[in-house]
Amino acid sequence: MFERILVAVDGSPRSERTIPVALDLAGRYGAEVTVVHVREYDRYEGDDVDLGPPIPADELVQRVVGTFQEAGLSTHGEVRRVSPGRTAEMIVDVAEQSDAALIVMGTRGMTEIRSLLLGGVATKVVNRATCPVLLVR
Prior knowledge:
alpha/beta
């Protein structure tokens, strides 16, 4: 049923809650897992300004990938860079490119305050995704 699962992480505590859920599902279905972290950047005075969490993007993804690999699951990670506001679109794009049968992600992440005003990343992913989306609280 879920032969490929995309797990979106952002380094937030809510995002961390997705990992055991995705591990369980991937183990049950023998799924291949793609871990994606979408990092927002903005241009300021000619430089890229990282708008993400303090943990380096590659370090975050490698840590999560390692958790899945330790469980014996075929897993790879991706870091994608986007301009502010395009995170949901990129998560859906990666899900489609990896032919994911399920997206697993948190309900609120690093942009919690902004999401209350503008519509959260999770809501946008649910509305745009062509596969089921499991939101973990």
